[in-house]
Structure formats: structure tokens, C-alpha cells
Amino acid sequence: MKLCFKKIVPFSIILLIFPIFDANAQLGFCNGNSGTPIFVEDFGTGTANGPQLPAGTTTYTFVNGTPDDGYYTISSSTAYFDWHSTPDHTPNDTNGKAFIVNADFTAGEFYRRTVDGLCESTSYEFSAWLLNLLPLASCNGAGIPNNVKFQIWDNTDTNLLATGDTNTIVGSATPIWRQFGLVFQTLPSQTSVILKMINNGNGGCGNDLAIDDIVFRTCGDAIVITNEQNQSFTAVCEDLGGISSTLTATPDYAVFSTHSYQWQISSDHIVWSDILGETNDTYVTPFLTTSTYFRVVVAEDPINIANNLCNIISGEYDVLVIPIPDSPISKGDVSICANESQALMVEVPDGIVVDWYDALVGGSLLQENSTSFLAQNPGTYYAEANSSIAGCRSITRTPVTITFFELPKVSDEISTFCENTTIILDADLANMAYAWNTGENTQQIVVGQQGIYTVEVTNANGCSAVRSITLEQIDIPIIENVVSDGYSIIVKTVKSGAFEYSSNGRFFQDSNILTNIPGGRYTIYVREKNGCGIVNLDYIHFVIPKFFTPNGDGANDVFIFEGIELFDSFDISIFDRFGKLIKHVKNNTFTWDGTYQGRDLPASDYWYHLKIDGRTLQGHFALKR
């Protein structure tokens, strides 16, 4: 098994906190402030394995290569067997090494280290990073998990100060570094302790681990620094001339029962200096005109206040004097077409935000915290710089103007043209640039097909609008057929349209049924109303009356076939309802007055049989008296 930790960010950290003076306490971390590390073991760097640990550090055997059960190595690589291959844990550590352990077949201690230079009766935090090297699928998914016990003993190895188990850590699909810790307190007159790591599980297929970044640091109360307004920092604008604050350090008494203080000051968060004579829990700052940072060093006993092995350090308290920001830098005025959108833009340094107004001074706030502003109307807008801390505002605002160019004014149109003709389409605006969907670029185009035509019209400012012309074709009338129905002539066209009809070419009607037309020869006309053409057809209108009334009143006294005389050949037979032939005429003038052999026949239905132009027509008509 191998222990590494340097460049992988842990997926999880166990943060269970338990009473720090209980020798049987479980794993956990300092619940207050931690001091600077007083002991760090990161196992070095380099590409060669080793060096092996000092004698007495481990009961395992060092190997300069692949470690079998009961062996270990110090290496920058974990690429052994089918283990996870991953760098060590130490951040920013090129070729960093880790302690790689392949567990012995028998559980037991595998690491021991004495840590010196501690302060007596002082709380400390121990921590280490651990990685299960076995992938989840190894050993057919049944690999032995890690389970390590950490112990802190006094330097006599007789008093157990703290202990805790990691519990079961199973293999994972990807390498996961986990941090574990213990909090303990040294005994009176004790300045060193013994760290032990014990493998709770046996070796075999699994239980392979890596350990890295073992750290000891002091552990003390959580210290909160606030000002007289109970704020955790102070921020003012430089035009106020500076500020002085009264700072108070407040411990939570989680670890220390008494407190000694030393206030420190810094101008860069890096170099800290003691403030001479400031050893109380409160401190009144001088009048500050530049940003300055404060913290306090705390120890339980005054004798340890200057010993970094024994003291702790609070968080920082920042007094920030914020410069007045310069006005934003404009990225230029904007000129766009009325149907476009483009934000007004300004630049400011990091940490500065921008507010937009409608006036150079005062006015209404239009938008906060943005270096861009999307104006809906033309005009000049004003950008004001504002520090994100303390709200320090620029002395002046930056004007940025947006101009909207007018679009070409076009309108859509629906137009018509006659079949088999052409029509001129016009963009309807002169002195523009034109782009028709036909590919042409003139103001007018000539077309002869129906459809939707569009033209993009662009003015001198580069602003465009699209005019759409829906062109519909008006069909020329085509006569499909003409039929007679009694005294009516019915005209049928191939296509429908705005047509009108006539039997003489002078008087036209909308209906295609021409009524009260005596039999005879006619020229039938169909005309398109919009002037898209007229057609005609010669037609013999053959009328077979439905009845006649031979009563001598001069109207319908005889039965005739109107228009039959226009045919070259015909054969007519009249029968009564019993099938008796009443009259027969062939190729000669035909009329029937309703008599048979000189006597009137009764009112009834009679039947005709007509052969004409190769056609045979049969039907009946009524004789009414």
C-alpha cells in the first residue's frame, strides 16, 4: 500500500470534533484557531525511490521498487500493480513523494515518529492525508479496505493522549485523498510526543495505502476580532481623510482558560510586526489613511506568547481605505439602425462596478453593477464608477451616446398578373441598394411567375428593411364544355376564376347558366373580369321541351325540337306510354300538334326516340290539355 498526498484536492474531509482532552477521543480537527505548522513530513521530492525511513520508524521493510505485503517504499509514483496511478498530495510539489504501504498479512503498527519541540500543557492538532490505492473493481470488487488507527502517546510511551480510527475506507473508481486529524494536549513538563499509525486490517488482496503531509500545529480558541460597531472589517473612502477604530479580540474559550495577547500589524498580509506594548484584548488603531491589516497572537500563558510552537494566530482584521475610482473609460459612442440592439460599453479596473444614470449629475439610476447598458431609446447615458467595497464613487460620470438611424419605410403588397404575361415589381423606394430574392439588385424587376418576392432595401446608413410582394396569377378562362338543359345553356370552365358569361358577346352575366335561350346556333363567350382574356365557342343549343299545351292559345301549341334543323341528319319517333308509334319523321321538318290520325290524344306522358349526329336520345315529355 502507498501513502501519497500533494497534488490531488481531496473529495471529502472528515470534520468530526470531539473533546480534546479525552485520551480515547475519535478523529477530528481543531475547533478553534490553529497556529503555524511546527512539524511537517511530506516525504520529499524526486524521481528516485527513497530514502528509506530512519530506523525504528516502521516495522515494514523498505524496497526500491514494487512493495509486496509487509513492504513499503517512498516514491513519487503509485503506479504499482493495478493500483491508482496518481501524484502525491502536497500542493505545488513537483515529483513529490509519499509513504506507500502494502499492508502486512498481520495487522499492527506500521509507522512511529517522535515529534519534539512542543510546549507543555498545550493543545495541538495532528493531521495526515490518506489514499486507498486499490481501485473499486480490483480483487473482483472484493478488495480488503483500509482501516488505520492514529495514536498520540507521551514521550515515555506510557500515556495515551489521543486515538482514533479511520474506520473502513473502501476502494474507489478514482483516487480520493482524505484528511484525518487528532487533537491532543501535552502533559505538564512534556515537550515531545510519539505518533503511531496502526493497521487495523490484515494484508492480502487490498489494504494498500499512501500517506502524505503529516502536520502538527498548535490548537487554541477561535478568536474573533471586531470593531466598535461589531463589524469584522472596516472600509472607508479615501476622501473621508482616514479613520481610527477600536478593535476587540474575543476568544470562544473552547481550549484556553486564560489568554495572553500580542497585537500585530501588516501593510501587505505577508510581513507582520508586533505592535509594541499592545498586549490587551483591545487595541485602538492610529488614524489610518492607507489600508492596514491587524491580527492578534494568543497564548494561554504569557511565557509562550512569543513561541510559535505554543501560540495561535487569530484571523485578520482589515482596515481598508478605498481610493476614489476614476471615471469609467468609454468604449465609444454607438450608432445603429433602429431595429438593432447594441449595448453601450465602458471599462473599469477589477474591483470597480458601474452604475448607469440618465443625467450627468443626479438623475435616475437606470442600471446597477454592469459595464454595459442596453439603451432602448436614443440619447446620452452616463456611467459612474463605484468601488465594490465601501461604495466610493467617481467624481464625474462618463457620457456615452447612442444614435438610432431610421429604417427605410416599406410596406408589403399583394398583386396580380394575367397568365402568360409579365409584370414589373417595384421596391417602391428610390436611391437605395436592393437585394431581391431572385438575385437581382435593381429597383424594379420583371417577373412572369406567381409566388412571394422579397427585396431588402438598404439606405445610405446601412439600415435595411424587407418589402414582400405576394404575386398571384389570374388564369385565362378555358371552356371545358357546354351543355343544354332545357332552355338553359350551362358553361363549364377548366379552372374557376372571376369569369362572366354571354351567349351573344354583348351582354354578360356572372352565372355560368344562361337561361331562357331558344334553341339554335350560338357563340358562347367567357370573359375574365380583370381583363385577362376572353374565349368563345360555337355551340348548337338543342332544346327538347318538357311539355306542350295544344289548346289553341298560340303558346306551346305544338311540340318541336328547337335547333334540330341545324343538324344534317336526324330520325325522330314519338310513342305513347304503351309503346305505340304515334309519329315518325326522318330528315324533315318536325312538329306534332298532339293528334293521331286526326283526333286529339289525351293528356299524358309521351316518349321520344331521337337519333342525331350519331347519338341516340330518349326521354319523355308531357301533353297537357
List the helices and strands and how they pair.
Layout: E1 12-13, E2 33-41, E3 61-62, E4 71-75, E5 98-102, E6 108-115, E7 123-132, E8 148-154, E9 160-165, E10 177-185, E11 193-199, E12 208-220, E13 223-226, E14 234-237, E15 246-251, E16 260-266, E17 273-274, E18 282-284, E19 292-299, E20 312-313, E21 317-322, E22 329-330, E23 334-337, E24 344-347, E25 352-357, E26 365-367, E27 372-373, E28 379-387, E29 398-405, E30 413-418, E31 423-426, E32 433-436, E33 444-447, E34 451-458, E35 464-474, E36 479-485, E37 488-493, E38 499-502, E39 513-514, E40 520-528, E41 534-541, E42 547-548, E43 570-575, E44 581-586, E45 595-596, E46 599-600, E47 604-612, E48 615-623
Parallel strand pairs: 1-10, 3-4, 14-21, 23-29, 30-35, 42-48
Antiparallel strand pairs: 2-12, 4-5, 5-12, 6-11, 7-10, 7-12, 8-9, 8-11, 13-15, 15-18, 16-17, 16-19, 19-20, 19-21, 22-24, 24-27, 25-26, 25-28, 28-29, 31-33, 32-34, 34-35, 36-37, 37-39, 38-40, 40-41, 43-44, 43-47, 45-46, 47-48
Structure commentary:
Residues 1-25 have low confidence and may be disordered. Strands 1, 2, 3, 4, 5, 7, 10 and 12 form an 8-stranded mixed sheet that branches. The chain has 625 residues and is an all-beta fold. Helices cover 0% and strands 44% of the residues. The protein contains no helices and 48 strands.
| Helix residue percentage | under 10%
Principal-axis shape: elongated
> Low-confidence runs (pLDDT<50, min 5 residues)?
1-25
**Helix run count:** 0
Average residue-wise pLDDT: 91
Find the count of extended strands (DSSP E, 2+ residues).
48
Secondary-structure class: mainly beta
